[in-house]
Amino acid sequence: MKLYNSLTKQVENFSPMNPGEVTMYTCGPTVYDYVTIGNYRTYMLGDILYRTLKYFDYPVKYIMNITDVGHLTGDNEGDADIGDDRMETSVKKEGKTAQEIADFYTKDFMKYFKVLNMKEPSKFTRATSYIDQMIELIVDLEDKGCTYQTEDGIYFDSSKYERYGQLSGLTSDSVMEGARVESTVRKKNPTDFALWKLSRGKEQRAQEWNSPWGVGFPGWHIECSAMCLEELGETVDIHVGGEDLKMIHHQNEIAQSESATGKKFVNYWVHGAFLQVDGGRMGKSLGNAYTMEDVVEKGFIPLSMRYFYLTAHYRSSLNFTWTALESAQNSLKKIYTLVSGYAEDPGAKVSVDYMSRFDAALNSDVNMPEALAVLWDLFKSDVSEESKVATVVEMDKVLGLRMSEHIGFEIPKDIQNMAATREEYRKAGIWDKADMLRRKIEEKGYVVEDHSSGMYRVKRKL
After folding, report:
1. Quick check: helix, strand or coil at residue 25?
2. Which residue pairs from 372-381 have beta carbons closer than 8 angstroms and sit at least 24 positions apart in sequence?
3. How far is the C-alpha of 97 from the C-alpha of 108, rounded, in Å?
4. pLDDT of residue 146
5. Which of 11, 22, 57, 365 has the smallest C-beta neighbourhood within 10 Å, fewest atoms?
6. Across 219-265, where does the E strand assignment appear?
7. Which residues of 17-46 are buried (b: 16+ CB within 10 A; e: fewer)?
8. Burial 176-192 (b: 16+ CB within 10 A, else e)
9. SS3 for 413?
10. Which residues fall within 8 angstroms of residue 385, CB to CB, at 6 or more apart?
11. What is the three-class DSSP state of 266?
12. What's the maximum distance between 2 C-alpha atoms anywhere in the chain?
């Protein structure tokens, strides 16, 4: 399998350190608010990669983190060490405890994680459960001479790590040029970053812990390193995230992790491109940071979003519009209609030709648009119906569109009888009774399609 490695900026052959267990980590949500459909595109990348590895028979230990402390608002302005803690902001805004905030938005995230048919990782790690590991890691960096203290916390001295910027291309000069705000923190170098932030004076934060340096809370970057090292070891096969994390967050993970262990932190960095909205950026201030709840409220099948994500390669930008989502939903409904007419045969063989093409798409840097194209070609082919079913089921192990749930679907006898009676009423011109039966049929989850030929068809309501 070939993967594009953001570290080397090349497509490389994937070769795990231990064929008996591939280790993979994905940066998950900060649970201070509802997760957007842009965030879910990144998590979908993790899911597709996870499914693909398992499809090719790699045993995978997959970790996704839940950030519930330390993610400051300054990262949107070019300096992740300034601003307010997103969790603290929600605590003040909603009048709830930090635990309640984290639990509520984590529950919502998990709900749609399942609705989008993403496979649950080996473990979800919650940052606040790893405070001890974070402190130990900072102490280790301190002992190695990689830190210094300012009036507001403990900082990593990026000049101590010679390869800083290898992933991001950032230097101290470029950070100064690119920052949109002037930092109020007295850093030795603009690329230095907080490992532990000290609580301000007598201010009582919702979340703070004792440490060797005083009461405070962890920096955002140290959290992922601590969780990753604790759960997956000193070197990880694959680290997944959105392209927005490559420049600072992931570069800082590398610097602190490798300074602590003396070993390569990650072998393959896989970054997904942004999701655009109406051709521009997505943002809460722009009013277009749509959530899955927005998708559902507009009457879309949630899995239409999954299909939509699959229509573009993960390294290519994808433009969301409601029209584009409607097109994706129409395609998904067509798939369900097609497979509902197939009869399943447990003894049928997959199509070697189409599975070979499907595998080639996956092996080519998980090219999901190409994989979808193979699926559509299969539908149009003269492959036997039984073989199509077997092949669709195999492909769906990666696509995750729940196609197998629609294969060979039979309309219940009582629904068929109501539809037949409705048709008799229509022929007799008794329209009120025909409409009444149509409504009853729809209430039970089915629809009747009338055709100009005079025929009708009953379908499951999607």
Report:
1. strand
2. 372/310, 372/311, 372/399, 375/335, 375/399, 378/351, 378/354, 379/335, 379/338, 381/351, 381/354
3. 17
4. 98
5. 57
6. 236-242
7. eeeeebbbbbbbbbbbbbbbbbbbbbbbbb
8. eeeeeeebebebebbbb
9. helix
10. 342, 343
11. strand
12. 90
H or E segment to which residue 22 belongs: strand 22-26
CA geometry: angle 415, 417, 418, nearest 5 deg: 65
The model's pLDDT over 380-399, given as tens digits with 9 standing for 90+, comes to: 999 999 999 999 999 999 99
CB burial of residue 308 (10 Å; 0-12, 13-18, 19+): buried
| Coil/strand/helix, residue 446 | strand
Q: How many CB atoms lie within 10 A of CB 215?
A: 12
The amino acid that residue 453 corresponds to is S
**Cβ proximity of 66 and 106 under 8 Å:** yes
One-letter amino acid of 308? F
Q: Is the dihedral of CA 409, 415, 420, 424 positive or negative?
A: negative
What is the amino acid identity at position 19? P
Over the stretch 308-335, which tens digit does the pLDDT of each residue have?
999 999 999 999 999 999 999 999 999 9
CB 189 within 8 A of CB 157: yes
Cα 350 → chain centroid:
30
Residue with tokens 């601590």: 226
**pLDDT at residue 462 above 90?**
no
